[in-house]
Structures are given as C-alpha cells and as structure tokens.
Amino acid sequence: MRLSAYFLPTLKENPTEAQIVSHRLMLRAGMIRQTAAGIYTWLPLGWRVLQKVEQIVREEQDRAGAQELLMPTIQAAELWKESGRYDDYGKEMLRITDRHDREMLFGPTNEEMITAIFRDNVKSYRELPKILYHIQWKFRDEVRPRFGVMRGREFLMKDAYSFDLDPAAARRSYNRMFIAYMKTFARMGLKAIPMRADTGPIGGDLSHEFHILAETGESAVFVHRDFIESDWQNRDVDYDGDLQPLVDELTGKYAVTEEKHDPAAAAALGDALVSARGIEVGHIFNFGTKYSKAMNAVVVGPGGEPVTVEMGSYGVGVSRLVGALIEAFHDDAGIIWPEAVAPFKVGLINLKKNEPHCDAACETLYRALGGEVLYDDRDERAGVKFADMDLIGLPWQIIVGPKGIARGIVELKSRKTGERQELPLEAVIERFRA
Amino acid sequence: MRLSAYFLPTLKENPTEAQIVSHRLMLRAGMIRQTAAGIYTWLPLGWRVLQKVEQIVREEQDRAGAQELLMPTIQAAELWKESGRYDDYGKEMLRITDRHDREMLFGPTNEEMITAIFRDNVKSYRELPKILYHIQWKFRDEVRPRFGVMRGREFLMKDAYSFDLDPAAARRSYNRMFIAYMKTFARMGLKAIPMRADTGPIGGDLSHEFHILAETGESAVFVHRDFIESDWQNRDVDYDGDLQPLVDELTGKYAVTEEKHDPAAAAALGDALVSARGIEVGHIFNFGTKYSKAMNAVVVGPGGEPVTVEMGSYGVGVSRLVGALIEAFHDDAGIIWPEAVAPFKVGLINLKKNEPHCDAACETLYRALGGEVLYDDRDERAGVKFADMDLIGLPWQIIVGPKGIARGIVELKSRKTGERQELPLEAVIERFRA
C-alpha cells in the first residue's frame, strides 16, 4: 500500500479523551475513531490488525477441534427468559423492541442461543463431543465506557461452547480450550498466564482467566516466576491425547489476581513470587448443566436414556486483544507490533521523493515485497516520515536515501531494538520477498 | 473434515416454512437455522460458503482500489438527523434507546457514518480520491421477512463509499465499482447483468442494479441476448486506465427490470430480446453532494477554496448472494456449488465403513486432500450417503467401494454433470492434491 493513497489519519498530539496508552496510540496511529460513546470504527490500519488477531484465534480454535459457525447479533428475549437471565442481566443488556413490539436484545454473549441450536439439532450421544464457536460483535451497555477498545460497548468476541456426555468428557473439552488459549496468545507474542477465577454470572465451578502482563495492566496479579521464564508453548501438543498433565503443570503454580491473592501462600514462594500488572484477555468456564437443564438440551445416551449435556463456554476478547497488545508492546515513540499481528510487516521510507534513484529503488522494493509493505511515498520531511513510521510500529523499516542508494545500499531498522544495518538493495529484497 | 464429527444437521423432509428453493435447500443442507423471524444462525457448512463469498467480494474491492475498514453496527441517531433521513426511514429502521436514554439504531446502511468519518479526518483535495468499504451486518426491520437469507432482517452487506473532488472523478470511481461488481459475480460463476435503476431513498441521478438470471428469480427482466452469450469478464482490466468504454459497452444494450421495461424499444430488438427472471445482488449509486452538503464534508481544493466532495455508494448483498447462488445452481437432488464458493471442493464417500481396504483408501485420500475435503465416514447406508452428498452439492464426489478398491480403483463423480469415471487412487490424489 502507498501511504499517499492510504486512509491513515495519524495525529501529532495526544487526544485528551484517552487515559491509557493503547487508546492514545490507537487514535494517534489512525487505527480507530469513536463514532458514539464506547463504539468505534476500525480504520484500515486497525482493521488489518484486528483481522490478523481474529485469524490467529480462528486457526487455534480449529486446530483444537472447535467448529466455526456464526450466530446473529440480535436475539429474541424469550431465549433469555428460558435460562432466567433476562431479568438478571440488568442494564448492561441492550434491550430492543422491534416493529411488531417483540422484545429483542443485542447479544452480550450466546450461552442461551447456542444451547437452543444444540437442543434443536443434536439428538444422540453419538454426535458428541462438540465444540462450536463464533467470532461475532457483542454489545454490553457499560455505564462508563472507557479505555478505547479495552472497555467499549460494541466489541468483538470469540466465544466457544462445548457439549459433552459426562463431566469427564467436559473436562477434556475444557482442557482443549485451555491449551488452545495458551497457544493463541503465544502466537501473538504474548505471555498469557492462566489464573483461577470466579465464575460469576456465567455459573459453574471451574474457571480460569488468562492474563497477559503489561506495566499498564488493569489488575494487580501475583504469579510464580516460572510462568514468566518458562517457554512451554514451544512444546508440541496432541489434542487427541491426554492434556491433563500439561494443564495440571500450567495450573499447579501460584497465579492469582488481587481478589484471590493469599499473602501467606504467596510468602512461601519467596523470591519465586512476582507481583505485576495484568490484562484479562480470555476467560473459560465449565458450568455443567446450568443451561442445558434450564433449556432442556438432552440427548439419547448409549443405553437409550435421556442425558442432559455437560457444557462449558470459552471467551476471548478479540478487539480487546488489540488494545492489550499495544499495552504490552510500545515505547515513547509509538507501537511496536509483534510480527504475527503487525498491520504490515515492513515500512518503506523514501527519504527523497522525486529523486530518480530513490524513487526507482523504492518502486523496485515495493513491487518485490508484495502486500505486506507500506510505502511512505509522500512528499514530506524525513522527520515526519520517521515519526509516523515509529508511531504505527511496523516491525521493520527500510530507509532509502540518496547517499546510500548511490552505493546501492539501503538501511534496515528494527522497530523493536532500534538496531540499524546497511544492506545492499538485493539483500533486503531477498530478506523480505513476498 | 470428518462428517461423523461435523455439525451438519441435514433434513430429509422439506421444511414447510420455506417457500423458495434456496431457503428449503439451505435448511435441508444444514447451512442455516432461523433463531428469530428473519434472523439466522449460519451453521458450519453455510458459514464456509458465506466466508468464501465474502472473500471474493473483498479481493475484488481491494483490486479496484477500495480500502477496507469496519464501521460498527450500532449508530447514534444524531448522524441520521444531520442528513434528514432519521424521520424518513420509517419502521424499517431498528431504533434503540440505550441506558442513558440516548437514541441509537442498528445501521441499515452507512452513508451518514462514513460521511462523518471522512469529514473529520480528510482535509485536502490531495487525499482524494478515496473509496472506503466495509463488510458488516446490517438490520432492516422488514414487516414480513421471508425467503430465508434472501429477505432477512439481519443480513451481511458489503457497502463501499467513494469521495471525489468533482463529478468527472466521481464517475471514474463509479466505473471502478461497476467493473469490480461484474468481476465479483463472474468469479462466483454468476452471469450478472447491469440494469439502469431508480435511485430511490439513497438519492442521486446515476444508478445501476446488478441482476443474476435464475428461473426462480423474484423480478421479471428483459435483456439483450449479448449479455447472456458474451464472455466479457475474461478480458483484462486496468483499473488505472479509462474504464468508460467498457462501461459504455456493458450499459449500451437493452437490460431492464419490469418497472423500466419499454415494450416498444424491446420489440425493436426482435430475436435478440430475452425475457427472464432476475435476482438483484448489487446496487450502485452516484449521488453527488447529497450527503456531503447536508453534513458539511468539505476539503480544501487546489486553489485553497472549499470543495464539497462528490460521493457514491456501492452495495453487494453478501448473505443474499448465498441464496441467489443456490437459486441459480440446483437440481431436484440439491445444491450444485460452483467451485469458487463451494464449502468443500470434494466429498469423499466411504461405501463400506469398517471394511479395512475401504477405510485405508479413504484415510489416504483424506490426508492427501487437505482442508477442502469432507469425508463421509459415517456407518450409514450408501443411499443415505449419496443423498446427503448430492443435497449439500460439493462439486466433486470421490466414491470408494470394496469392489473398486480391490482393483485400486475409485469413482469420481461430477455433481454438476453427473458424469462418473473410474480412476486409480493415485490419479485422484494427483487431481485434487491440496
């Protein structure tokens, strides 16, 4: 993409409405714009990141054996009356009356709807287990939306739901999602730490939150040092094998949010205790028959008997992750994207637009590098170009100036380390060829 | 995907609520389920088709120079009061009041929102032209939703918006979208015919509808035979060149819906006139300054003067296209997917599950063919398997039976032609290798 044509409205000044760094940087880098309180448009640069994050979530769900479908945003209130949550949910639920005066709502989550779909379409134990997921926009009418996409009202969530014949099988589904989450966050360059959690309004008795560590995190967390230093995610996982030992290992060490912190237990860890800040990016629940019983999701069991299915639900805040990634990866100059989720892999800076050799070298690079390059072909000062490129945080910058190109040399800069090296044009092409 | 594990609830009987063939077949093939009037869940098989259709639309928008972003579903009513459409829109608009008693709505279209985004972020003629698009769920509260996804309430639309400095440039943007639409539909195997159209509530004076021909189409259409027999879409198009001659050629021949039909003009065509049935799958508008004037979308022109930008909007019904494709491609046994949008390219039928040679051959094929194969590994009668595979309409069926496999032979069947051929196992693998 050529920056001269790209819709990338960067801002030089910090927007006053943004209280946290990810919100500030998403506005400044032209990733999002607010269109109503807590509701955002994702501009092209932000949309590219959101799509990459979404695709990683999708691939890891698929790998773990979950099947994707898509439920609608608008739901009938009757479903929520069946589970008893319609009245409980309170003002966070966006309630709607349609033209025929039917009570509807914008889904804040989908336990009820997926249970109804399952109930109407699955009849036999032979069709179990099933893990079904979708990646869909949700709405929670927060009383004070803030922190940009970290606590917006309309947000993109991946929510998966498991259906099993008995608690042991349900635990296997839970373990699959547990491991899939660890892998998902690791692929984005994030160190996610599973923490025992309350089940809250979702229900059930087994639940973990996944927090990533960031200095600007919203929660105080206390974790065993091994979580930070270990590199477990490089291990191969066989999803059809027994995942319990790995889950036990990953849940066997101290890792809690402030609410669950036990100073006495923590003190016993001595130097192994790390206190840090965390951002919740995922939450998984095993809630047994809470919804299947209320909504009559029953299959015929192996002996012909009716069995109320065991369920769990598994959420990742996909749009929230984009903010969380920036909280984890930034410096004073701007964002520092991990390669897996960077909107473009390479930023190409032409220091002397309209100088024939610079232009020719840049065109050669632009064509060779394909869709993962953003070419700053604007007629702007070098300082403006450097600042914008650091702000939007592409992992690599290729800098083409008249002196270097006279020798056939361009500069390659790592956004993360700031390290620069001079390389022949051909070597850079070879390094990044599409 | 193994069918024994796949969430594919096919139906043997025709659902009584479905009046048209695409609705019937989408329900029977386990592609969708209704969750409220005119609101559907896309089950895994349907979701795969919807994603493929969406991806073709996206690629052709990108190729034509449009840039993707994502606007939210929920909009503030104020935007629509600025354009004057809030009161005009009537009961089709799903109106919502949030917890702070602010008037909101579920977007039925996005002219107002994109104009506000443009106005707030683009200041100079140097940033033009711009074509921005998104693929997002819309809601229109139809009084009588029907025909499944063809006239639902929550539906997926691709809507693009162009911004230009003057009418000549706006016409160039219009032409880009016009050609992009022809290519989009052609890639799906559809013959789309552009027809002069009324602009209706969107406004403006230049508009085309794109109709595909299907015996079960909703509208009577009258078109010059050349549209049906020509094969223009195989021509290369240079989007940076002058598209007007091609657009003139494609709009120079008779093609109208019933409302615009002129029997006298049509009669002059003689044998060249074809009367047929059409389904609208796209609609494009050039509406000048209707929204930019009302909402003050002004840039600084080349001479420093303020210029109210020229706009157009361009819609494709993405979810509707899935229904339209089935209307165009089906027979008595079920759907006949064109390869580009088929949920899987190949269906693999094991005629004798648990027979070691059949099982082994199927496993070999399943592993070799990758993600585009659906393997019917169920312990079911051959008749059930054939019927289900014809119903869901994958383009190719590979049939593995004990007699053939004893000779190393499998059967390859084309869903479209019904043609069958016997081939060595290795030849089939070579033919479809992922």
Automatic annotation (TrEMBL), chains A, B:
Per the record, the similarity remark reads: Belongs to the class-II aminoacyl-tRNA synthetase family. ProS type 2 subfamily.
Q: Where in the cell is it found?
A: Cytoplasm
Subunit description: Homodimer.
- Signal peptide span: none
The Swiss-Prot or TrEMBL record annotates one GO molecular function as: ATP binding
| Coiled coil feature spans | none
What does the record give as EC number?
6.1.1.15
Q: Which reaction does it catalyse?
A: tRNA(Pro) + L-proline + ATP = L-prolyl-tRNA(Pro) + AMP + diphosphate
**Which named protein is this?**
Proline--tRNA ligase
List UniProt keywords, sorted A-Z. Aminoacyl-tRNA synthetase, ATP-binding, Cytoplasm, Ligase, Nucleotide-binding, Protein biosynthesis
For this protein, the record's InterPro entries field holds: aa-tRNA-synt_IIb, aa-tRNA-synth_II, aa-tRNA-synth_II/BPL/LPL, Anticodon-bd, Anticodon-bd_dom_sf, Pro-tRNA-ligase_IIa, Pro-tRNA-synth_IIa_bac-type, Pro-tRNA_synthetase
Domain Aminoacyl-transfer RNA synthetases class-II family profile, which positions?
A: 38-338
Q: Which domain of life is it from?
A: Bacteria
**Top EC class per UniProt?**
ligase
Describe the task this protein carries out: Catalyzes the attachment of proline to tRNA(Pro) in a two-step reaction: proline is first activated by ATP to form Pro-AMP and then transferred to the acceptor end of tRNA(Pro).
Taxon lineage: Bacteria, Pseudomonadati, Pseudomonadota, Alphaproteobacteria, Rhodospirillales
Q: Which GO terms describe its biological process?
A: prolyl-tRNA aminoacylation
Q: Would you tell me the Gene Ontology cellular component terms?
A: cytosol
| Protein source organism | Telmatospirillum siberiense
